[in-house]
Amino acid sequence: MKVRTVFMGTPQFAVTILESLLSSPYQVLAVYTQPDKPAGRGRQVALPPVKRLALEHGILVIQAQTLKSSEEVEKLASLQPELIIVAAFAYILPPAVLSLPKFACLNVHPSLLPRHRGPSPVANTILCGDELAGVTIMLMDGGMDTGPILAQEKVGVSFMDTTGSLSSRLADVGAKLLLDTLPDWLGGKIEPQAQDESQATYSKLTASEDAEIDWHLSAVELWRRVRAYNPWPGCYTWWQGKRLKIHEATPVEDVVEEDIGEVIALKDPPGVGVITGRGILGLGQVQLEGKRRMSMDDFVRGQREFIGSILGRL
To answer: pLDDT for 206-251, tens place per residue?
Structure first.
């Protein structure tokens, strides 16, 4: 069934969803994505991942600053979309856009709605220590992830999962779930189910300062943060006035110590840990400002004074 479709999304999660649509019978007329932004140490302009894929397939790319202006709505209307698919687009669609397509606007959201609405659902899933994550296909309305549900699928969360690894798995699940759901939706065989507002929780937009480690938190909380903020912005602390990024860590003991932030040698299992507000956080891979990422063993071998020092801002 050839349905005139417009896709809206930006990051790698959305790329996986778009790839599935491009390999399906649905006709992708155009891709809406956020504007190019400077990235990396050199602050060179980087193309959104979805834009790169769309250009590879010769699909029209539109990078609007907003969809609230009448000019942008008219531009979208001129494409005569019958269906709009949204995945990690970051804009709330105005009523004028929501009312355009015959088959409505559908969102592929990486959480089990109504839990973890908002812009950072995967990171929030890890921060909250959830054992289950998932993907929801929902009918969009004027709220933030508040629309009726068409389909859901659960995904287990591993104790090793980071936002990066879990997002990748959820994208694969979401792409398949979308293609499995669309035929029944287009055929009028699905009755959207309202979300239970009493169970709603919200995630906030992740900022770089969220990733600075407060050693007064428990080892379990910090372990979750290291995973939740991987790959971006990456948890970090300070050592000798330089930023020390912590890529991997794990809680190894549940004891209370006095010298919070002190680096200690661990005996069982052997390694290096940091005393937290509750328990000890074992360090795995770290990266000192201006240096390459390395194992804790390699780092300590070159930085003998690390053990016994205190981490954090002076």
So the answer is: 999 999 999 999 999 999 999 999 999 999 999 999 999 999 999 9
* Chain centroid to CA 302: 34
pLDDT digits 0-9 by tens, 243-282: 999 999 999 876 656 789 999 999 877 899 999 999 999 9
Residue whose C-alpha is closest to residue 50's, from 93, 79, 80, 21: 21
CB of 22 closer than 8 Å to CB of 57: yes
311 in a structural domain: no
Amino acid residing at 174: G
**Is 217 in the same domain as 148?**
no
Distance, first Cα to last Cα, the chain: 63
What are the C-alpha distances in Å from 83 to residues 8, 25, 80, 100? 11, 13, 9, 9
Question: Could you give phi then psi for residue 178, rounded to 5 degrees?
Answer: -60, -50
Question: 35 and 146: one domain?
Answer: yes
Percentages helix, strand, coil for the chain, rounded to the nearest 5? 25, 30, 45
Burial label, 94 (beta-carbon count in 10 A; 0-12, 13-18, 19+): middle
CB 75 within 8 A of CB 65: no
- Say if residue 142 is in the same domain as residue 44: yes
User: Domain range for residue 123?
Assistant: 4-199
